[in-house]
Amino acid sequence: FEIEEGFRSKPYYCSEGYPTVGFGIKIGPKGAPLSNYTFTVPRTAAEVWLRCYLDEMTEEITKFGAVYSALKALAAVGTGSMYTDPRCSVLLSMCYQMGVAGVDAFRNTLKFMEQGDYTKAATNMLASKWAKQTPDRAQRHAKQMRTGQWAPEYSK
User: Fold this and answer.
1) Average pLDDT score over the chain
2) Bridge partners, residue 98, by sequence
3) Which pLDDT tens digit goes with each residue over 95-120?
4) Rounded to an integer, what distance in angstroms lies between the CA atom of residue 96 and that of residue 92?
5) Distance separating alpha carbons of residues 25 and 122, to the nearest angstrom
6) What is the pLDDT of residue 156?
7) Crossing angle (nearest 10°) for helices 135-147 and 86-98
8) CB 14: neighbour CB atoms within 10 A?
9) Which of 30-34, 63-67, 69-73, 74-78 has the lowest mean pLDDT?
């Protein structure tokens, strides 16, 4: 997640205007003054926070049928755990960035992931508002979904 989100110990505004800290974790409502957040987060604390957030997100995924089915299908043919498999990691990264409910709206993309049609899944990913908002991330994720291989940026 560091490649995509970066790490900042001090609060900042994300691209959508939310106060954010650590590895892209929202800490307040959109437009709230950063002066409300006068703390820093040590990297080790941010790593624990991220792990807890990912565990909660993974639990939340089970409540969204289309997302959960796609993740189960990806994991079944994957090369490791859902945290280490390239395709599963794409779906988890999307959930982290947009929220599970946001990814649940990608019904065709999720259907193609579940069916193993990774080319169509990638094409659908790139035809979204998300891809327009974060084009570099979307391109990396789409390529990784198509190939099942880690993007070079992640192996540094």
Assistant:
1) 93
2) none
3) 999 999 999 999 999 999 999 999 99
4) 6
5) 26
6) 55
7) 150
8) 15
9) 74-78
What is the rounded CA–CA span in Å between residue 119 and residue 105?
Answer: 19
- The pair of structure tokens assigned to 116 is 């193993």
Structure tokens at 16: 């959508």
**Structure tokens given for 119:** 């080319």
DSSP string, the chain: -HHHH--EEEEEE-TTS-EEEETTEE-S-TT--GGG------HHHHHHHHHHHHHHHHHHHTTSHHHHHHHHHHHHHSSS-TTTSHHHHHHHHHHHHH-HHHHHT-HHHHHHHHHT-HHHHHHHHHTSHHHHHSHHHHHHHHHHHHH-S--GGGG-
CA 36 to chain centre: 27
- Which residue carries 């570099």 as its tokens? 136
Distance CA 95, CA 103 (A): 6
Model confidence pLDDT, tens digit, residues 12-60:
998 889 999 999 999 999 999 999 999 999 999 999 999 999 999 999 9
